[in-house]
Fold:
Amino acid sequence: MLLAGIVLTLKGQPPTEQLTSFVVPFIGTEGAGNVFPGASLPFGMVKLGPDCADKSSNSGYVPGAVIHGFSHVHVSGTGGGPKYGNVLVMPFTGPFQPEEIQSQPANEQASPGYFAVDLTDYHIKAEMTVSRRVGFHRYTFGDNKERGILIDAGSMLGEHHCCGEAQQLIGSEINIVSDTLIQGYTRVRGGWNKGGEYTVFFSAVFDTPAKSYGTWKGNVASPEKASEYDSGEKTGAWFFFGNGSKKAIQAKVGISFISSGKALANLQHEVPGWDFDKVHQDAVQTWNKVLNTIHVEGASDDMKKVFYTAMYHAMLMPVDRTGENPKWHSDEPYYDDFYAIWDTFRATNPLLTLIQPDRERDIVRSLIDIYRYEGYMPDSRSGNQTGRTQGGSNCDMVVADAFLKGLKGIDYQTGYEAMVKDAEIPPGGNQQTDGRGGINEYIKLNYVPAEYEPKEKSPTLHTPKLYDRAGTRTVEYSANDWAIAQVAKGMGKEADYEKYRKRASNWANLWRSQVTDSGVNGFIWPKRRDGSWVEDFSTTKAGSWGNFFYEADSWEYSFYVPQDARALIDSCGGPETFVKRLDTFFTGPNYRVDNEPSFFTPCLYTYAGYQYKSSDRVRDIIQKHYTSAKDGIPGNDDSGSMSAWLVFNTVGFYPNAGQDVYLITAPHFHRAVLDLGGGKQLEVIASNLSETNRYIQSATLNGQPLNRAWFRHSEIANGGKLRFVMGPKPSDFGKEHLPPSLSDPE
Amino acid sequence: MLLAGIVLTLKGQPPTEQLTSFVVPFIGTEGAGNVFPGASLPFGMVKLGPDCADKSSNSGYVPGAVIHGFSHVHVSGTGGGPKYGNVLVMPFTGPFQPEEIQSQPANEQASPGYFAVDLTDYHIKAEMTVSRRVGFHRYTFGDNKERGILIDAGSMLGEHHCCGEAQQLIGSEINIVSDTLIQGYTRVRGGWNKGGEYTVFFSAVFDTPAKSYGTWKGNVASPEKASEYDSGEKTGAWFFFGNGSKKAIQAKVGISFISSGKALANLQHEVPGWDFDKVHQDAVQTWNKVLNTIHVEGASDDMKKVFYTAMYHAMLMPVDRTGENPKWHSDEPYYDDFYAIWDTFRATNPLLTLIQPDRERDIVRSLIDIYRYEGYMPDSRSGNQTGRTQGGSNCDMVVADAFLKGLKGIDYQTGYEAMVKDAEIPPGGNQQTDGRGGINEYIKLNYVPAEYEPKEKSPTLHTPKLYDRAGTRTVEYSANDWAIAQVAKGMGKEADYEKYRKRASNWANLWRSQVTDSGVNGFIWPKRRDGSWVEDFSTTKAGSWGNFFYEADSWEYSFYVPQDARALIDSCGGPETFVKRLDTFFTGPNYRVDNEPSFFTPCLYTYAGYQYKSSDRVRDIIQKHYTSAKDGIPGNDDSGSMSAWLVFNTVGFYPNAGQDVYLITAPHFHRAVLDLGGGKQLEVIASNLSETNRYIQSATLNGQPLNRAWFRHSEIANGGKLRFVMGPKPSDFGKEHLPPSLSDPE
Structure:
């Protein structure tokens, strides 16, 4: 019986394809995507790629721009002040002239685990591949000139960024231990999250002994000097290897956040030999394995490029730093670069729960461990430091999503404690680091008031705006409260359930019915502590830190009630008015495809009984905004959030994050097979699918008719088959049995 | 003219005495003092001394107890969970048996910059001296046995302390670079302030090449292995030097909080040679210089021991870590181990302002720089991490004290901004780290209510008590507000002055006149948010974290109104009743000599016109509680706070910290000369002083009659002469012209 079962499972599995061939890391490197095109493993700690131009790009990379070298730590898809860009290595020829070592690029190539570029100024082909914590460089020198390599321990990105978000050097150190071993570190603070210090240690080895060397500190270069200790300045070293007949020089650079000794151990453990191609192939194989968790059929190669590159981008971050946490020692996994959970909770985390449950389990465990040691789960974290919280405490959504979907191996008791802490305990002065800013007022008033506190400002003091982002906070806190309520219910905590269930309707306290714009009535609106509305405001007023809404306006945030679409539809005047409002929104200027607040909004049609309009909207967005071109991602990819949105919606459903519910959207493939782990598969079939046959006529789930446009995770958790019959015209599919909302009659 | 002036100054200066001979570092090592008896420079980063018994002592040292080795970082006089005890070195003979290397001590010797002990189990005399960041060990082996030394990179104090205050290892690393150079580090978190990670790096050199060696990690010892990288475990190394004919082996250990490279640079810079006695003599000279800032005449040798040991203890902490800050790079000085300012602001900081103004300037600059980079000035800080705040934001007192006394070279604009931040911006969730917990309520109600918030507790969540220490906070916030008011006035900020002046009377809002105990009426009392008094409370209820009062009861805190003794005296029923109350207090069980809250209380007699009673009280305390015995300090010395109290009061005056006012107390010396820096001196003469002639009959200041029992810093800032004529009976001295109070008519 058991044997038969295994055979059946194997039989049903698609073959492992070379899906890496569909990944185009340059997608999203132009336009606003800000993705990192260099070499990385899935969730890899080392992200090895070029730092270009004035080193002000978030990913280090700037298409076609002058390259200063290749550094080992990067993030992908981010905005704001850059982080990282540490431990930069650059080959060159001729004399060492500090500040002048740089080259124009040509023939840039990028594929999973590999990056190559011709440094035309020096006639050097630079290639790089990676393991989890090691960068492997192969420099092929075209000219018979003096071959040089420099290691810059003081380089970093975003040194001159504005707004308090610049990275600031604390210090650096370099030691030439032998003619083939170099150790050191860079210590930096600041960047987007205004974080404290982080230290990137390295141990670098050459396959060719250096014939001469020198080091620098600040502006002083010292030939033949073997070490520069840390006195708060930038340090580095250069090496010459002679006009060798052997044209390539290889370097391996182990990275650690613990010590240079650990970096060397990482190097020796992960890449003991010098076989560049083998390391590259291992990286390709690792990527192939994770890409093969979704196997699609009936898509054009171009669509496959878009799709698998999106999967690739969704698995670059957060970063697995297990064993590399300098802040505490525990047996839990450790992840960093949650950048930000405000972005990733919506699609990325649910995607991992579905196709990489062990990975998501480890991520959630690391979030809970951060709570154990630091008192709060992060909303954002980078460089081992939590901050900045953009809206709600959306880690609550991540924990609830895992809990409700039955992810095993997580200490949910502590996770629940962490969620309740978010919901109850004010995080403190700057209100942008932990938990929920303004929570005391939210608890007291059932909304976050749009006022500044203390009112009586000192002329001396730059008083933080305690109730900034009051609109975003109120609607997100409400959604977060529903996440808590559901976990409470699942744990049998009835009183907590009732409490947070009630709080989950708090968004309605900022609903101002009297406001009208473009024929649409009712908007989320700033309210003062005394209950009076702010009059000097508009439906299209978006903002950032310090404003009522964060990165979207009232048009967008007035749809952000994922926990209770039923009540939202009622507030808007019923299903028909609501659908008109959605149409007005998506065809008007206020829908922003390039940011996360409206990720879920296309699904809202389905809550009004109009699944086909959700489908139309999603198809329209994908066709207009996602391509295989270098500018093929509509906004900052935000650690792969845009990409994860695409993956779900092309497969054909989309999660209501923090619930165990998926909404059926727009199947783009004739067949998709998702590997759920443990030998379980979810097969999604769209019969008769074509450009014209794009509407679902009917559906079955596990062979039974599916008379609704949504399903629960529990219905597919042990594998399943979701079959759609497609046709050229909208059907009644999804008209009845609407998806669940908080205010459904029980 | 200029030359003549110099000659005159030199002529007036007392000769430099070998005052170190009066320092007995063992005073305070028994009883509750918890002082560190090992080798340190003034404010020295390296504090090299023995770690004994089960390594649970705050100073590492336990009199007569088994010694495990000598570690390089310690604090002095502290309570709660220990910090530090890092990088332990131990000589031994015979085979290396891990866990068994330890020895009984004999012939312990301690003097400034020197510690020695015979390790009787091995017949080794261990001696140690220090520079600022280097420990110098000299081990003289008595037997012709195999000579061994171990370096333990994983050792620390307080690993098994309770209450969340244990130190926890994060990791450690050790590298035997050559037969004479060893590098590594220990990374630790936790301890009393529940701090984040700190890393103590070291570079150790031997004057004798090791003949064999080994390393360990966790429980695995590896002979001939030269390095152990950091994998989150304890590491160390042992060395054998053969049965040498040369009996002493010397080791120098450079310490750094930046890197082992910096540690080596520190070592090479500070102690380039191998002359132990020279380094020792340099340390003695450095101590002599700072001890000679107060020269006393007419005291017994025993009294000199008590006095100069107190001066010595008052200059062990905070620790000068300039150039050793791993969190940011700036040009400002950097000090750590403010442990706690709640203790030191009362006497230690004012003492330094008086006799080491450049040192105090640097300390204040470092506090302001911490505000610049971290958002708040610390109340406590250790291991590069702020926390825990015990009561008010007493850094405000330190800045005000410096400002009002005209200390130059400080950015008071930023300092004022930091004070106002304390007074206005809530510090956040755990309320024990930065600023003023409960400040919103204090601003709203004009007191901190004695209630817990949120009221509605989750059964899951261990809700922090947001309004814990509400009594201590209210009275200290009021005093802190007066500090701010005075600085505001000095800066011409009239509106701020009026605002904080008003708030400085907030202590009175917790004054409950109806409470009577032992014939005394009126006490500071817990009040709810609605204005009602808590009934379930008592005048003698002291506490700690989470209670209404921190480390004292209402008897003590009801006297803590240093800013407005006049109003306090009125509240207590006028001067006569007040003096009776003081008598009842000091002769009853509620006066605690062993802690800081009552430091200023003896001076309160003077505010009622009874200077002689202040004098009697101070003399009585000193005679009963301060001796030259090993238990000669009445409580935890608290970074020298008890000691600084003694120094002031024996010289004859005591500061009202955060004001520019000194109260005349109990001159114990016929003559004391204080070096105020810049060639200025304050001479204090007590004519006719004897055991019986202990009452001031009259006084002159700078040759003019002083018709009051107090003076301002400005009156002696440029030097001066304070002359008392003593007699056998109380006089009217100080009856008129009472010291200034907030509520004096202007």
